[in-house]
Design a protein that fits this description.
By secondary structure, this protein is mainly beta. Helix content is 8%, strand content 53%. Strand 1 and strand 2 form a beta hairpin. The longest helix is centred in the last third of the chain and has 11 residues.
Length: 130
């Protein structure tokens, strides 16, 4: 991931590379998420969603809450990068996210406002050299 963040996780953004593709075995219909990026102040995750062979469209996929007692921040030093580690937390499916699942597969796996996935993560933090 790349981005700019405040170590209190109250502002900034992040961007993640890679892709996540869902393919239904029975008919080959697919949904691919790429270009994930987040807004830390809004606690939101946006992705570029591709349904089948259609052009990718930006989608407000999910939001999340962070319990700061479940997050560890290690400050960077001269000898090592800092790190932010988050214990598992739930994401909540947004209406646009439910709509793109419905376009791809006829239905969303969960209704908007419900937990979409549980995530945990670790990000190395390298201070900017301005």
């Amino acid at each position: 991931m790349e981005g700019k963040i405040s170590l209190d996780l109250a502002e900034g953004s992040w961007t993640a590379g890679g892709a996540l593709t869902f393919t239904r075995a029975s008919d080959g219909r697919s949904l691919r998420f790429t270009g994930a990026h987040g807004d830390l102040a809004q606690r939101s995750m946006l992705v570029d969603a591709t349904v089948g062979d259609q052009a990718a469209r930006p989608v407000d996929l999910s939001t999340y809450e962070l319990d700061m007692t479940q997050v560890t921040v290690t400050m960077p030093s001269v000898n090592s990068p800092g790190r932010i580690e988050g214990k598992p937390f739930d994401t909540t499916l947004e209406p646009q996210g439910a709509a793109v699942f419905s376009r791809a597969f006829g239905a969303s796996p969960v209704p908007p406002g419900s937990s979409l996935a549980t995530l945990a993560g670790r990000v190395d933090v390298v201070p900017a050299l301005d």
